[in-house]
UniProtKB/TrEMBL annotation:
<keyword id="KW-0150">Chloroplast</keyword>
<dbReference type="InterPro" id="IPR002292">
    <property type="entry name" value="Orn/put_carbamltrans"/>
</dbReference>
<dbReference type="GO" id="GO:0009507">
    <property type="term" value="C:chloroplast"/>
</dbReference>
<feature type="domain" description="Aspartate/ornithine carbamoyltransferase Asp/Orn-binding">
    <location>
        <begin position="217"/>
        <end position="367"/>
    </location>
</feature>
<dbReference type="GO" id="GO:0016597">
    <property type="term" value="F:amino acid binding"/>
</dbReference>
<dbReference type="InterPro" id="IPR036901">
    <property type="entry name" value="Asp/Orn_carbamoylTrfase_sf"/>
</dbReference>
<feature type="domain" description="Aspartate/ornithine carbamoyltransferase carbamoyl-P binding">
    <location>
        <begin position="71"/>
        <end position="211"/>
    </location>
</feature>
<protein>
    <recommendedName>
        <fullName>ornithine carbamoyltransferase</fullName>
        <ecNumber>2.1.3.3</ecNumber>
    </recommendedName>
</protein>
<dbReference type="InterPro" id="IPR024904">
    <property type="entry name" value="OTCase_ArgI"/>
</dbReference>
<dbReference type="Pfam" id="PF02729">
    <property type="entry name" value="OTCace_N"/>
</dbReference>
<keyword id="KW-0055">Arginine biosynthesis</keyword>
<keyword id="KW-0934">Plastid</keyword>
<dbReference type="GO" id="GO:0006526">
    <property type="term" value="P:L-arginine biosynthetic process"/>
</dbReference>
<dbReference type="InterPro" id="IPR036838">
    <property type="entry name" value="Ribosomal_uS10_dom_sf"/>
</dbReference>
<dbReference type="Pfam" id="PF00185">
    <property type="entry name" value="OTCace"/>
</dbReference>
<keyword id="KW-0028">Amino-acid biosynthesis</keyword>
<dbReference type="InterPro" id="IPR006130">
    <property type="entry name" value="Asp/Orn_carbamoylTrfase"/>
</dbReference>
Length: 372
């Protein structure tokens, strides 16, 4: 193979090296030299080259190594310095793209597999567009394309996609499916959302706060609504970066108790779970809302609308929060339900810069995961 094709370390190169070298354990070997085969008698054990030994080990193991690569599954898998470094990188790459720069192509020649068990406009468009703008190619795999765990086992999907692609993003229901995918994949896996958490969204939110407030540290973020996957990711961010996070929700709709405990035990941010929106939002830098019935909970929508009365973010609640408070929402929003139209459209609403920053935060996450 011509050396200038740049295929060293590729799956093709690994296959070729492995095919020609893995049978070195026996006492009598055939060595291929062009088209001629010679029999070679070996006395004593053969020492396998380090590179080939590593390849053999990987191929024999059901769980493959990710040398120099990192998954992005939970925000608290990383320390404060790393999270802030990723956010700084997001700002830099965003500025490049905004300037019209199109020669920065770190993903050139790379492919991203996007698994969607849950449909989404923002997640698909932000990942696909972002990866393309930095030189890569993204492949959409919808709910009927894989049916992971039903038509094909997660561990098999992980290992197959790893051989075709450089990185995988998955937007799933069960968090365990994501963990299994990451366990068996030999390329980085990015959490595009699970029922448990949504770290890419919170990284975009943090980037948006830095742009509008100047920092995350020392701020007060008040989330009003259901203690869902968004809340879990905010809690895990508060376990890494010191800020005041309040989740105000109806009784019985609190976030996962173990996640709350983990965030509190980290001793980094101030964590509160309360039930009085008007008291909670006082002095907030950000008032945050999400739909009351997430995907998979729509049959509970009417019941939840009754239970969540008094938890709508309206103009009165924003006035109590104060003139410094920004409104944020991860979208899609049910205007007139968890938030009024007036609040979404108000000058201090930053929901659309927040949505845009999904792409920029995710670009930086993927750059970090790929070691670029």
């Amino acid at each position: 193979m011509p050396a200038n094709l740049g295929l060293e370390g590729s799956h093709f190169q690994i296959h070729r090296t492995t095919t020609s070298c893995l049978n070195l354990d026996t006492m009598s070997k055939d060595f291929v030299r062009g088209v001629k085969t010679n029999k070679l008698k070996v006395n004593g054990p053969v020492k396998m080259p380090t590179k080939v030994s590593h390849i053999k080990s990987a191929l024999m193991s059901p769980v493959e190594e990710k040398t120099g690569l990192q998954d992005f599954l939970h925000i608290n898998d990383f320390d404060k310095g790393t999270i802030l470094k990723i956010l700084d990188r997001a700002k830099e790459v965003k500025a490049l793209l905004k300037s019209g720069e199109r020669t920065y192509l770190p993903f050139k020649g790379k492919t991203l597999a996007m698994i969607f068990a849950k449909p989404s406009m923002r997640t698909r468009v932000s990942f696909e567009t972002g990866f393309y703008l930095l030189g890569g190619h993204a492949i959409f795999l919808g709910p009927k394309d894989i049916e992971m765990g039903k038509r094909e086992e997660t561990r098999d999907v992980a290992r197959v996609l790893s051989r075709y692609n450089d990185i995988i993003m998955a937007r799933l229901f069960a968090h365990q499916d994501l963990l299994d995918l990451a366990k068996y994949a030999s390329v980085p896996v990015i959490n595009g959302l699970t029922d448990y958490n949504h770290p890419c969204q919170i990284m975009a939110d943090a980037l948006t706060m830095i742009e509008h407030i100047g920092q995350i540290e020392g701020t007060k973020v008040v989330y009003v609504g259901d203690g869902n996957n968004i809340v879990h990711s905010w809690l895990l961010l508060a376990a890494v970066i010191p800020f005041h996070f309040v989740c105000v929700c109806p009784k019985g709709f609190e976030p996962d108790a173990k996640t709350v405990e983990k965030a509190q035990q980290a001793g980094v941010g101030k964590i509160e779970i309360t039930h009085d929106p008007k008291e909670a939002v006082k002095g907030a830098d950000v008032v945050y809302s999400d739909v009351w019935a997430s995907m998979g909970q729509k049959e509970e929508a009417e019941y939840r609308r009754k239970v969540f009365q008094g938890f709508q973010v309206d103009e009165e609640l924003m006035k109590i929060a104060g003139p410094q408070a920004y409104f944020m929402h991860c979208l899609p929003a049910e205007r007139g339900v968890e938030v009024t139209n007036g609040v979404v459209e108000a000058p201090n609403s930053i929901v659309f810069p927040q949505a845009e920053n999904r792409m920029h935060a995710q670009n930086a996450i993927m750059l970090h995961s790929l070691g670029l």
